[in-house]
Structures are given as C-alpha cells and as structure tokens.
Recover the amino acids of this structure.
C-alpha cells in the first residue's frame, strides 16, 4: 500500500509540474445568498481580506457560514462570529482536502482545492474554486458524459483538456478562467468515481491539434441523430476538422430520436409573423407542412434552422414534419440532441462498446485532427497509477456488503492512507473498513 501512495504522490507532482491551477466559478447559474461550508476530508485555513488569518486547521465537525451583510461578507465558524470582510478564502493545507458546499439555494456539491468568495454587485455570492487543472478535468468528465468503459472517459478528457487549454482566458475579465455550466464545460462536482478518474488519468498529456500543431476547437454534443453538422452550418467559421460525417453509431441510443407536436395554426403563424413568410403561397405552405431532411439541412425557406430550434426549444435542427389533419397539428420527428458539431457523446459510447480504439473515434469526429502527446507527461507513472485504480475498482466489487458513503471512494481512501502514514500509524484493512467516521450522515 505504501508503494501505491508513492505512485499517487509522484503522479500528482508530475501533473502539477506542467499544469497550473485554474479558477472555476461555481453555481454560476444560481443566485447564492447564503453558503454553509463543511469539510469532508483534510483541513483548511480560513483567510479574510486576502491575507488575514481568521482560523487555521478547520476540518470535520466545523462549518463556515458566509452571507452578505450590506456590501460585505459576514463570516462565522460554528459559534464564533468573525464579523464582516470584503472577501474570504479557504485554503487547503495539502492535496488531501475536500470541502462540501451547502448553499441556501442550489444543490449540495463537493470540491477539492481552494475556495475564493466575494460579493457581486447584485448582492449574491461569487464562489470560485481554485483547483489543479487535471482535478478540474476529472470533474468535468464526470459531469459531461455517462458510461462504464474507461475509454469513454479518456476521450471526453482529451477533448475537454483541449478545449480548456485553448480557452483559458474565456472569463479573464471576470476574474476566473471558466464557469461551471455548458457555456464553458459542466463542472458540477469533484470526481468521485475511480473508473472515470482512470480514463482521465489515461489521457494525461493528450490533446487534439491541427496539421500545424495548434490546439483545435473540440465541440461535442449528446447525439448527432445519425449525421454530424459542419461547423459553418451552426456557427460562422468553416473549420477543416469539423466536417459533417455519417454517424450510424448514434442511432438507437437514448437521445437519438424525439417527437414534438405543435398546433398547426401556431406553427404557421410563427413563420408568418416572425419571418414574414407568405403562408398562403401553396409552395411555401407545402414546405412548412411537409419539410423533410434525409441529410442535415441548414435552412427552411431561407430561415436558419438554428433559429427555429431556439425559438421552439427543439432538441436539434435535424427534423422532418408531417401533418396530423384530424387533430390540427404538425408533428416534428427529430433526430439527435444538441448542435450536432464535432463529437457525438452517445456515438462515442457505442463505438467504445464495440471495441473501436479511442484514437480512431477521435479522428472520426474531428476530421484530419492529430492526437498529440505532451512529452512532459510521464506515461510510466500514469500506467502504474491506472493499474492501482483498477485494483481498487476490483476490490470494491468484492465488498458488496460494505457500508458506502461519499467518503468511501477511491480518492478518500488513498488520502486516508497517506494521512495515516504521515502520522506513522499502522494500516489495518479490517479496522479501516469499519471506522465509524466513514459513515457520514448527509
């Protein structure tokens, strides 16, 4: 077990050597007025107004409450009231630190790394996670895609890493790198699944570049509906690696088909009033009621399908129309979910399940792109680390009766072992598995 911990620490150091921390705004689509922070693992130091230490070594059993008071933040720790400050920072004392965010409005989440909190002009809290880049990526992968095979997560990690490195300055004017929503990439929790982390670690140092070695744009969507879209059909730029390709792998998946019924009068009125289409013209009327797409189209009577999709909140632009005369409705039979450009996640899941190599899948969706391996990423440590995670996954399968909690995951277990070593305690597996404080009441 000590060898396992040594590998873990060496890998973390290797990754940290060429990947800085990133700042990610949390709860960016929610108005947060009050935040309670508890501690799942490790200890944190609490600072206010940048460098004023309020309390050190805050850990389990303690909680920090932050709420607006005027134009300041009011801070208290359990029963201790510290007063008001312009900004607050919770700084992890080492890598083995996990905190739990409990906002008054919004879902509970857990994250690693540091936390910076300030007040927006609107009076709500600005919450920013300052976290290692690769740790952030693992959380993104967990938030963005489902599946069971590690190559699914490896592929998502590669395209998410490529996008993040290319777009580091997206929210620079706001004081952070990314937000936690699909506007950037979803980042709704720390990664708690070892199989997802395995795929993310396997992808260490891998990015997608064009023929000149520049990082490419790597858009992705849930399901293509059987055919991806050209980039210029959805956005302005025609990019050589974002070409429409046949994608039969997406067919028959969860999001491959959809149906929407709309009143015929509302449908025709929309085109007449919003787009000034003459619906009394027989040719126009026939098109609006019997439009079909065997392959993806860009416009309907000159109107961008992307505009129609937004206005009617459709799952995709890939749809055909039929009339239900008896009910006075039009029925849209659609395919796919999302903008359709780049990688189809459900197509990827199917391809991985069929045994298609991960690099071939990436080349299928990003035409002509090159998989680049960072020479500074130590593949030897990566492979050894992946082996150890695989062992943990197998051990979990053999412990079906073991009480599980949010702390009882691969990362928590590794951190616990490391903490014990630092205290020179003896690791006894049977006692570790039965420790009462692992059974955390959420």
């Amino acid at each position: 077990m000590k060898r396992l911990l040594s590998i873990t620490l060496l890998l973390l150091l290797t990754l940290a050597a060429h990947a800085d921390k990133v700042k990610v705004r949390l709860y960016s689509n929610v108005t947060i007025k009050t935040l309670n922070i508890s501690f799942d693992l490790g200890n944190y130091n609490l600072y206010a107004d940048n460098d004023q230490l309020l309390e050190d070594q805050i850990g389990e059993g303690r909680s920090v409450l932050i709420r607006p008071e005027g134009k300041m933040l009011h801070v208290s720790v359990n029963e201790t009231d510290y007063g008001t400050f312009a900004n607050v920072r919770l700084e992890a004392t080492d890598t083995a630190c996990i905190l739990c965010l409990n906002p008054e409005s919004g879902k509970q989440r857990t994250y690693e790394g540091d936390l910076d909190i300030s007040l927006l002009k609107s009076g709500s809290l600005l919450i920013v996670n300052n976290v290692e880049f690769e740790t952030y990526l693992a959380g993104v992968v967990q938030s963005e895609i489902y599946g069971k095979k590690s190559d699914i997560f490896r592929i998502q990690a590669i395209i998410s890493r490529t996008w993040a490195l290319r777009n580091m300055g997206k929210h620079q004017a706001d004081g952070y790198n990314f937000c936690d929503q699909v506007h950037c990439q979803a980042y709704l929790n720390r990664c708690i699944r070892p199989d997802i982390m395995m795929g993310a670690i396997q992808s260490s140092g891998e990015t997608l570049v064009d023929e000149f070695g520049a990082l490419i744009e790597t858009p992705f969507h849930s399901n293509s509906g059987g055919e991806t879209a050209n980039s210029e059909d959805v956005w302005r730029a025609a990019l050589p690696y974002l070409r429409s390709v046949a994608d039969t792998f997406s067919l028959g998946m969860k999001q491959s088909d959809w149906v929407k019924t709309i009143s015929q009068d509302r449908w025709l009125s929309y085109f007449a009033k919003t787009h000034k289409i003459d619906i009394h013209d027989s040719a126009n009327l026939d098109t609006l009621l019997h439009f079909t797409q065997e392959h993806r189209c860009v416009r309907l009577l000159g109107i961008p399908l992307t505009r129609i999709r937004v206005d009617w909140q459709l799952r995709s632009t890939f749809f055909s129309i039929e009339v239900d005369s008896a009910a006075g409705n039009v029925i849209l039979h659609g395919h796919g979910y999302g903008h359709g450009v780049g990688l189809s996640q459900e197509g990827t899941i199917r391809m991985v399940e069929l045994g298609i190599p991960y690099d071939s899948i990436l080349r299928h969706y990003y035409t002509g792109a090159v998989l680049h391996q960072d020479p500074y990423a130590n593949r030897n440590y990566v492979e050894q680390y992946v082996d150890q995670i695989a062992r943990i996954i197998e051990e979990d399968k053999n412990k079906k009766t073991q009480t599980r909690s949010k702390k009882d995951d691969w990362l928590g277990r590794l951190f616990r072992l490391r903490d014990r070593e630092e205290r020179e305690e003896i690791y006894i597996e049977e006692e570790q598995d039965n420790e009462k404080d692992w059974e955390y009441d959420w």
